[in-house]
Amino acid sequence: MPWSALLVLGGAMVAAAWHIDTTAALLPDTVATHFAGDGQPNGWMTRDGYRVFMIVFVTVLPLFFVAVTGWLPRLLPGSVGIPNRQYWMAPQRREQALRFLTAHACWLGCLLVLFILGVHVLLLQANRSVPVRLSESGMFGLLGAFALALLAWIVILVRRFRRVD
C-alpha cells in the first residue's frame, strides 16, 4: 500500500476542509454558488449549507476517485482499464501495478482537492465583490490549470503501463 501518497491526500483533504470551514465565516448569510457564463450569479445557498456541502465535496469526491481507480481493481481485477492490461495484471506484475494505480489515484485525489479549493477561493472573492460576480478569467485559469494537470496525470499513467519487452 502506498502510504505516503495516502498520507499526502489525507493531509490535503484535512487542510482544505479546515480552510473551507474557517473562511466560510467570511461569506454572507446567502452565498452565490452558481454563476452564468458571464459571471452573474444564478444560484444560491445558505452559508451553513455551503460550508457543509463544500467540506463533504472536498473529502468525498477525491476518496470516490481513489476507491474507483485504486481499490476497485483489487476487488474486481477485470475492471482494470490500463494499457496492456494482460501484461501488467499477470501474477508476477499485478501487485506492483496495483500499488502504482493506488498511489496514482491518490495524486488524482490531490488534484481534485486543489481544484475544489480553488473554486472555493473564487467563490469567496465573488461573494465579496459588489455586485457579486465570479471572475471569468479566474475560473478559466483554474479550469485550464486543472486540465493541464489532469493531462499530465493521464500521460504518466499511460507511459507507466506501456508494454515492456
Give the count of structural domains.
Answer: 1
Mean pLDDT: 92
Gyration radius, to the nearest Å? 19 Å
Unreliable residue runs: none
| Distance between the first and last residues' Cα | 26 Å
Topology:
Layout: H1 3-23, E1 30-35, E2 41-46, H2 47-75, H3 85-88, H4 91-128, H5 136-160
Antiparallel strand pairs: 1-2
Question: What distinguishing features does this structure have?
Answer:
two-stranded antiparallel sheet; 71% helix; 165 residues; mainly alpha
Give an overview in words.
By secondary structure, this protein is mainly alpha-helical. It has one domain (3-160). The chain is 71% helix and 7% strand. It has 5 helices and 2 strands. Strands 1-2 form a two-stranded antiparallel ribbon. 25% of the residues are buried.
Short summary:
By secondary structure, this protein is mainly alpha-helical. The protein contains 5 helices and 2 strands.
